[in-house]
Structures are given as structure tokens and as C-alpha cells.
User: Fold this.
Amino acid sequence: MASSSTTSTSLGAGAINLASHAIGPRQVIRGPGALQAALPQLRSLTQRPVLVGRSSAVASHRQGLAQQLQLSAPQQVLLHHDCCDEDLLRLEGIIGQLQADGVIAIGGGKVLDAGKLLAHRCGLPSITIPTSAATCAGWTALANVYTTTGAFRYDVALDHCPDLLVFDHQLIATAPARTTASGIADAMAKWYEASSSSGHSQDGLVRQAVEQARLLRDQLLLEGEEALNHPGGAGWTRVVESCGLTAGLIGGLGGARCRTAAAHAVHNGLTQLAPCHHWLHGEKVAVGILVQLRLQEVVAGQALAAVARQQLLTIYPKLGLPTSLADLGLRELDHEQLKVVCSFACQESSDLHNLPFAVTPEQLEDALGFCAQASPAPQLLEHPG
Assistant:
């Protein structure tokens, strides 16, 4: 979710809560050819930027942008790992040596997080250029930090969202369909998590964010399959913008009071296991939603949660999303692996505790075990490599 802080003060006989929201980027340029159109704004923000990337799959796009901006080789820096402290420290040193005045990140969510966090630490303008709709990282004032091997460590709330977000439909269209399916799951989680953690909030912005999350979920359920089957069409455009833009707006509008819950806590726990590292963020979140719904059904006694889970088990295969831990390579999940996931997901700082009911490690282990086997098995889309 986007960065937000709250304090309390008194006014007359009552008390009010103050909140500081980082709702969205200062400027968003979206549509076909957005990157080319954004060059003047990009140049006005930074004259000596560093260009951060990683994946070889988008190397041609990265190199094309570097040529258009006439960036020297030292100004083009690559992450060696996911967004991790080791890479961040190394790149901070490079930024200082180059006396750079801006950070441009082009790539997937972890590259965008690294770029935002580098800009935050160095006090520089931040420009994000997503190359897929797999997450809303290009929008938000949050960055997730991992280990060098891909295990989630912690997240950082940033002072503000990016100064410029460039969402180029032509660039997004070059990404594998699997990244869009992953983005659909991650965006739908906004509803399943926020409605549980924040659905009874009396805060007007939070209530509006939760309602918007419901509308977003409904749209993705209706148009997700069409978008994957007809890339570049009108439905595809609505879906990728929903995943990459609207999902971020919901987090910014709701702020820290519109919280993620068990679905992302399960994701964070699953990243502690090596077999899960090559699966996309949204794919792990997809299974996390199923686990959360099982907790709501069994621990909180919410019968409708079982209906929602069965609905997703019907829809996930059509989107190429995993329906179980087995689909994530954990068919032979043993007790020790379950303990690792549950211990991390249940730690004191975990999003799991944003649920309106308490969950013990044993209850989470039971829910994970229930979601261990696929039914039915999905046909996963091509891996992005």
C-alpha cells in the first residue's frame, strides 16, 4: 500500500486523526507511445540520471531509452539480484560518484522498487517505467526489500510516490501474458485483503478505497480472461491499467489504514522457500488469497469465504494462475517447510495481524495444508524467463 502516517490531536471536545497520504505520482503519462511522449518531461526532471534495470528480456528497451537520453555506459546500472540491501548500497555509491540528479527505473516490480528506494535514500527525483502490468510498483510510495536469494525481508514507506510514471501500452504489450495474469491476482487481492482488514472503517477515504477495490475486483473477474486472450484490445487496456495504475491509486487513497492482510503475509512467507523464488509475486499472492479465505471460513466462521474461494478456484485456471501450493512447486511440502512459512508469516510485524481476528501459526499451517493440492490443475502461461 502507499505510504501514510497518522497522528491524533484534539479539537474542542472531540478527537480527530490526522493522516498524510502519498496518493499518487506527481505526473502519469499513459497510452501507446507514452515513453516517447514523456521524454521532454523526463529531461526536465533530470539531466544526469542513472538508468536502473536488470532483466535481459527488456535489455533492448533499456538500451533504446539510454540512447535517446544519451546516457554514458556508467549511467546504466544493473541490479545483480532482486531489490536487496547489497545492490542498493553498491548503486548508492555509483550515484554519488556520478553526481547523478535523478533515478530512472525501467523493468518489473522489484527493479521499480529499487529505483524508488535509491531515489528516496539519495533525495533525487524518481521516474518509473514499468515493462509489465504484473504489479502496481510503478505507482506506489512503498518498496519491498529482499535478500540476495529472493526472500522477502521488509518494506519501506517512502516520502512520496514517483515524480513521473510512464505507462506505455506498447511496452507493456511486449511482456509475457503470465505477467498480466500475475497482476490480475495482485490487484484482486486489494479487495480480499482491504475488505477484511478495513471494511468496517469509518474513515471516508478508506471506505471509498475499499469500495473501489471491490469494483476493481469485479472488473478483473469479468474482463481478465478476455484480456489474456486478446492482448492489445480494449479489454486488455482496461485490465493492464487496472493492475498497474488503479491498484496503486487504491493503496494511495486508503493509505496505511487500508491494509494488506493474510494474502501478502503468505506471499512473504513463501518467499522464504527456495522452490518459490522463480514464481511471480502475483502468483504467490493468488495462493495467499485462497489461504486467507480458508482462514476466514474456518477461524472466523465466515461461510461466504468458502463460496468466494470456490469461485476463484474456477477462475484461476482460466487465467493460468496457480490454485495450490503444489502448483508453486511445493507438492512435497513437509512440516519443516510449513513451519518456516508460518513462522515468518506470523511474526509480530506481519500483515497477517491486520485481519480482524487472531490467527495462530497452527491455524495458518492447517490452512496452508488445506490449500496444498491443486483442484483443478491450471494450465500455467509461459514463464517470462
Observations:
- The domain at 28-172 is CATH 3.40.50.1970 (Rossmann fold).
- The first helix runs from residue 34 to 45.
- Confidence is low (pLDDT under 50) at residues 7-15, 376-380.
- The chain has two domains: 28-172, 177-370.
